[in-house]
Amino acid sequence: MFMARDTGAQKFFDVSMAKAHKIFSDALRNCSGLIRTVRGPSMSCTPGKVEVTGVEEIMGQKVFVLRFLQCRDAEWIGR
């Protein structure tokens, strides 16, 4: 699942990160084991491509957990 950047076509596909993660998580729960190799919602950003891996609570506030899939700085990949 790829989330659109702020380009001309974005308005046709625009959903929030929270909604994209919920759609993905709900779909994954209803699938067989073969599909579970799929990656979560991902998007492009200036340093590279990131995947939304989950939502955690830190100091009482919900935050997204992100992981670099591709990056300009190779040391950041997987972090």
Spell out the key features of this protein:
alpha+beta, three-stranded antiparallel beta sheet, globular, 79 residues, 3 strands, 2 helices, single chain
Explained architecture:
The chain is an alpha+beta fold. The protein is built from 2 helices and 3 strands; from the N terminus they run ααβββ. A 3-stranded antiparallel sheet has the order 1-2-3. It is globular, with a radius of gyration of 14 Å.
Radius of gyration: 14 Å
Task: Quickly give the structural class.
Answer: alpha+beta
**Global morphology:** globular
Helix content: 10-25%
- H/E element sequence: HHEEE
Our count of helices gives 2
Total beta-strand segments: 3
Briefly say what this structure is.
With 79 residues, the protein is of the alpha+beta class. The chain has helices at 10-13, 17-29; strands at residues 42-45, 48-58, 61-71.
